[in-house]
Amino acid sequence: MLIKDLAERAGVSVKAVRYYESRGLITPERAANGYREYDDGDVLVVREIRALLSLGLTADETVPFVECLRAGNDRADVCPASLDAYRLRIAEIDRRIEELSKLRGELSGLLDDAESYPTTTHQEKP
């Protein structure tokens, strides 16, 4: 299938397919005329990449999942490297939650302090 057909079937843009190819995530065959040729396996890989990117993984972090699919597995997340990638992403999310919780606490403290600060009205001199 051609690049536009792959993009349509996988629910991404042609530009996205080209980006995935530039990152080495998909490697199409080339027809005699030089056109890229994709197969059904590429559709599955692109759908998986799109789903993982929507979860906040980077293109590089999708590599273990792509390799897992290319190894013939029905799922991209059953290989040890894929599980490790999940664990790393969860740890990063936990770290960000901790940072945001700390920041929220600091801001809440500042807000409480500001709201309880006695205000004075300054009157203009006549």
Overall 3D geometry? Answer: elongated
Order the strands across the largest sheet as they lie in space.
Answer: 1-2
Distance between the termini: 83 Å
Helix content: 55-70%
Number of extended strands: 2
Question: Could you name the ranges where pLDDT drops below 50 across 5 or more consecutive residues?
Answer: none
Structural class: mainly alpha
The CATH class label is Mainly Alpha
CATH architecture: Orthogonal Bundle
CATH level 3 topology:
Multidrug-efflux Transporter Regulator, Chain: A, Domain 2
Described by strand count, sense and barrel closure, the largest sheet is:
2 strands, antiparallel
Number of domains: 1
Approximately what portion of the residues adopt beta-strand conformation?
under 5%
Q: Which sequence of SSEs, written as H and E, runs from N to C? A: HHEEHHH
- Give the overall average pLDDT: 93
- Using only CA atoms, what is the Rg? 25 Å
| Tally of contiguous helical segments | 5
Give a description of the structure:
A hairpin with a 5-residue loop joins strand 1 and strand 2. This protein has 126 residues and is mainly alpha-helical. It has helices at residues 3-10, 14-22, 40-54, 63-70, 80-116; strands at 29-30, 36-37. Strands 1-2 form a two-stranded antiparallel ribbon. The mean pLDDT is 93. The chain is elongated, with a radius of gyration of 25 Å. Helix 1 (3-10) crosses helix 2 and helix 1 (3-10) crosses helix 3 (40-54). The chain is built from five helices and two strands. The chain has a single domain (3-114), classed as Multidrug-efflux Transporter Regulator, Chain: A, Domain 2 (Orthogonal Bundle), CATH 1.10.1660. Helix content is 61%, strand content 3%. It starts with a helix and ends in a 10-residue tail after the last helix.
